[in-house]
Design brief:
about 210 residues; alpha/beta; Rossmann fold; 2 domains; five-stranded parallel sheet; 10 helices; about 55% helix; elongated
Length: about 210
């Protein structure tokens, strides 16, 4: 069986160096390149077309999920694995929905990372049932939070996610700015968020939800 060719993306030089050094010493894996940003990675991925992309979930210029979406749009047949410092079911949910074959934590043993890379090279997932169960629970909690909003509050949440200011929302809805401020406060309170930016992130994380298969 040919080696699993892998391309690495991480914006922390020490992490990137450590990953490359470890994986290059692993039988059955060939590291074909690396990058520290999405902009630097895309042309190399287009040219090299490795079997596997191992990418940090959060990068300074974009998210790993956005890179995965771009690869899908370009129809590049590259299996995606996320490597992350964040053990958060919301991030796992987005990773799963992006079509990734796994979500690994940076604290995991390198042997586990190498195992997942080899599986991904064969088109096989490395999602653990515990991760999938946490994602399902998170989806249920998110759905309940969304349903707790009134129809008008949901409208306001969508507009906040689009970056509209209170005055723009008021004009679109035909209400006063004070009324919009009231709805914004309710949206933040019911969703457990601190500011408008978090509303945009929350909405991006749950848009077009699809249930996990059992």
């Amino acid at each position: 069986m040919p080696d699993a060719t892998v391309f690495l993306v991480d914006d922390h030089p020490a992490v990137l160096w450590g990953l490359r050094a470890a994986l290059e010493q692993t039988p059955g894996i060939t590291v074909v390149g690396d990058a520290s940003s999405v902009d630097a990675a895309l042309p190399q991925l287009q040219r090299l077309q490795p079997r596997v992309l191992l990418v940090d979930y959060k990068l300074h210029d974009a998210s790993g999920a956005s890179l995965a979406q771009t690869l899908r749009q370009r129809q590049l047949p590259i299996a995606i694995l996320f490597l992350s410092a964040y053990d958060h079911p919301g991030y796992m949910h987005r990773a799963y929905r992006s079509g990734a074959l796994g979500y690994l934590l940076k604290e995991e043993p390198m042997s586990q990372v190498a195992w997942a890379v080899k599986r991904a090279g064969q088109g096989l997932p490395s999602w653990r049932e515990e991760q999938l169960a946490r994602i399902r629970q998170w989806q249920e909690e998110v759905a309940a939070a969304w349903e707790s909003l009134t129809g008008r509050e949901q409208d306001v949440a969508h507009m906040l996610a689009r970056g509209l200011r209170n005055a723009e929302i008021a004009e679109a809805l035909g209400v006063s700015v004070r009324t919009v401020e009231y709805h914004v406060a309710n949206v933040l309170g019911k969703l457990g968020l601190r500011n408008r930016a978090e509303v945009a992130g929350w909405m991006a994380g749950v848009a077009d939800d699809e249930p996990l298969s059992e």
